[in-house]
Amino acid sequence: MHCNKYGWLFIAVFFTATFLSACSSSDGEMTDVRVGEVTRSIFYAPQYVAISQGFFEEEGLNIDLTTTWGGDTTMTSLLSDGIDIALVGAETSIYVYAQDANDPAVNFAQLTQTDGTFLVSREPVGQFDWNDLKGSTFLAQRAGGMPQMVGEYVLKQNGIDPQKDLELIQNIDFGNIPSAFASGTGDYVQLFEPTATQFEEEGLGFIIDSFGTQSGNLPYTVYMSKASYLKNNEETVEKFTRALYQAQQWVQEQAPEVIAEAIQDFFEDTPLSTIEQVVERYRDQGSFAENPLLQEDGWYLLQEVMAEAGELPMEVPYNELVNTEIVTGVIEE
């Protein structure tokens, strides 16, 4: 879901466009905020709740949500002022910073706090042990992406060398991985929801473990803006964060079927029962952040995962790319 190699940053960082800042008027006029999400996913349920339940509207914000399909496209849109706020993996802000950006992307609110993929087997498994993967064919996520980095990190944490202990397949495009597994490629596969649940329902695979619970808490998907936008639109970002926090609390309090109904319009091609199962699974494993504060230990775990995969361009201090002032003020209200 999150791209890694950003050669396009050399162009995007220096791309200039008319800066459009959202500002509220004193007569109660709504403020337009352009948000680009890296993909459309039930993994982002609190965001859709904030829209459907009117939490953004109550704050005087009109959210123009666009699915930007990929980390590279999302960050290019943010850096060129095509969007005001990006929902994307926190690792992208590190890649931008490493290119000596004059106006870096700064993380200000966290949405998901674990990886969103699951380990799916072709055959039913009784008592699963990660050592069972040794000698098997493993259909992994695309090389260099955040899901693959977390996947390899988890495998190594469980004593498996992905390059030596597995027949590792990681050259299949993200969108084609499910169909490749369904057609017979691989003994195990790393899948996102709702595909993992749909495979179980259709008897094509069986969820046997979660990369999210295995890897621990890290800022997998966050909201970020350029430093200049945060400086010039602090009130708008505060309102945005307040609405998000309200939605996060709502998701923790409501039954899965209520949440599923609240976000159903965003997933018209997915059965309501499947949405409900996915919401429940993600919430039960703690994938939805309960508040927007990006924790310091999660920030450094992210960099540990990146470094382990050989993809960390440089170590970046927590306070350099994480703004905690806004979210702390909102939580303490």
From TrEMBL:
Subcellular location: Periplasm
Signal sequence extent: 1-22
One GO term describing the cellular component: periplasmic space
Keyword field: Signal
SUPFAM superfamilies: Periplasmic binding protein-like II
One Pfam family recorded for the sequence: NMT1_2
Similarity remark: Belongs to the bacterial solute-binding protein SsuA/TauA family.
Name of the protein described by the UniProt record: NitT/TauT family transport system substrate-binding protein
Annotated organism of origin: Evansella caseinilytica
